Amino acid sequence: MLILDLGLNAFATGIVLGSVYALVALGLAITFGLLHIPNVAHPAMVIAGSYAVVVSNAYGVDPLLSGLFWAVPFYVAGVLFYGFYSYVFEARGRGNTLQSLTLFFGVSLIVEIALVVAFGTDLRSISAGYVGRSLSLGFVVIPYRFLVPALLTPVIILLLWLYLNRTNTGLAIRAVAYEERALHICGIDPVSVKRHAFGLAMAMAAIAGAALVITGPVDPFAGRVHLGRVFAIVVLAGLGTIPGTLLAAMLIGVAESFVMAFLSPSWAPGVAFAILLATLGLRPQGLFGALR
């Protein structure tokens, strides 16, 4: 009975934790999955969003509302950054994978150093009425600090899916990585489309940062823990498959939760890498295939 209770709690925790992982990976599903830009700095941007939420929370603002507020300046920052990236790399024919990776690794380090200079290396957390409380369903206990941000994820994913599939701008974002010439023929500027998509991904980073800091304290280097995880989620789902991101993240969340419950918490970070390698070897197109 004890093993059954432990297993049920591990499963429930993995589901809600996986939902949070999906939100963290959502911006990468746009930049890497749709734009084919290897944005390894995305987890660092998520942590920057977490720290922005910590600052707002110090003035009594709810972290989720704060995340929605910070999504706007993060969007603007993403638009400006892609303008720089496009001019320096893509417009000059330098946008190959190696140079892009070097750039984004550098951006990730700069973000980490900036956070250390501004806030130090201590863990930072938020306060909210639901933090520290739990929902009990029989033998299953789910902390609200996991449940509340997890409930936000399906809403965000549904809205993003509707935007990408039911609006002209969203359809242009889906098409830009594969039919750039067709967009030119239609009189649409692919650079403008990519600029908007990158800004949208940065806005997702701010919201994800809010969700992440609710689940637990963060430090400036916390993004490194999520780097392999978010790439594993995007690849497992299938590049650009937005709804599949949620299922893939839940699978990884449940796998990590069971490893932590029955083996050792120190093994959990390796679960995502193992799944990533297995996916690349057995089904490189992901569970749902790359978006076309």
Account of the protein in words:
This protein is mostly helical. The protein has a single domain, classed as ABC transporter involved in vitamin B12 uptake, BtuC, CATH 1.10.3470. The protein is 72% helix and 3% strand. It contains eleven helices and two strands. It has a two-stranded antiparallel sheet. The radius of gyration is 19 Å and the shape is globular. The termini are far apart.
Largest sheet: 2 strands, antiparallel
> Strand-residue fraction?
under 5%
Looking at CATH, which topology would you report?
Answer: ABC transporter involved in vitamin B12 uptake, BtuC
Radius of gyration: 19 Å
End-to-end separation: 47 Å
**Helix percentage range:** over 70%
- How many structural domains? 1
Number of strands: 2
The geometry reads as: globular
Taking all residues together, what is the mean pLDDT?
A: 85
- Summarize the helix and strand pattern as letters: HHHHEEHHHHHHH
Characterize the quaternary organization of these chains. Answer: single chain
Low-confidence segments: none
The number of helical runs is 11
Query: If classified by CATH, what would the architecture be?
Result: Orthogonal Bundle
Helix and strand composition category? mainly alpha
Give the strand line-up of the largest sheet. 1-2
